[in-house]
Design a protein that fits this description.
The structure is a single chain. This protein is α/β, with parallel strands linked by helices and 217 residues long. 53% of the residues lie in helices and 14% in strands. The chain has a 6-stranded parallel sheet with strand order 2-1-3-4-5-6, sandwiched between helices. It is globular. The N and C termini lie far apart (37 Å).
Length: 217
């Protein structure tokens, strides 16, 4: 199926550039462009895209507020944050609000298309450059780490192992290989973890795992 994409960025040249790149792929249809957050929310309601590419810093309603509003809609699309990676903690906040991941604007065209298709399938997306940069902006204070660890007390030992895999960026298949479980079993654990922790998606759960210092690596 063709993935429907909405582009939200206050720079018309960026929108034009992204539209040209994405329209060259037979797997993607650009269904609209929004120049601020308010337009983005309206366009989502009107056009029902599968994925929104969301710039964070826009006039009026910014990308953070727009992401929050979009994720609160019934059956919302995946929101991928676009950044030049000077966006520091705004990126982390967007992920906590339900964004499916984030990409740097300089992501190569082929990689950009692939990552959008991954997000449309419900997976977390971090471009390699962005993933490396995330480490630099997620320093966690001691009190925040303690709060994160407190939330994990609701999990069983096995669920904590699965959450560690999510925090390490593994797919369900990767976690299954690590823990010698079936992928179906891992998928069930992931659903339980998201429900127990009150996380909207894997990205939020992964951030919580990182905040708590949970890792099997």
């Amino acid at each position: 199926m063709t993935v429907r994409v909405l582009i939200a960025d206050d720079e018309p040249m960026v929108c034009e550039h992204l539209t040209t790149i994405l329209s060259a792929s037979a797997a993607i249809e650009v269904v609209g462009v929004a120049l601020d957050g308010a337009e983005a929310v309206e366009a989502v309601v009107r056009s029902r895209p599968d994925v929104v590419l969301m710039d964070l810093r826009m006039p009026g309603v910014d990308g953070l507020a727009a992401t929050s509003r979009i994720r609160a809609l019934p059956d919302p699309p995946a929101v991928l944050v676009l950044t030049t990676f000077d966006a520091d903690r705004y990126v982390v906040e967007a992920l906590r609000l339900g964004a499916a991941g984030f990409l740097v604007k300089s992501t190569p065209p082929d990689e950009l298309v692939d990552l959008i298709l991954v997000a449309a399938r419900g997976h977390t997306v971090l471009s390699p450059v962005a993933a490396a940069g995330l480490v630099a902006v997620t320093a966690i204070a001691a009190d925040e780490r303690d709060r994160a660890r407190g939330r994990l007390t609701a999990l069983t030992a096995r669920e904590r192992e699965v959450l560690a895999g999510i925090g390490d960026g593994l797919s369900n298949a990767g976690i299954a290989d690590r823990l010698f479980l079936s992928e179906t079993t891992v998928k069930g654990y992931v659903s339980q973890i998201l429900e127990k922790l009150g996380c909207a998606n894997r990205t939020q759960a992964g951030l919580l795992a990182k905040a708590a210092g949970l890792s099997a690596q």
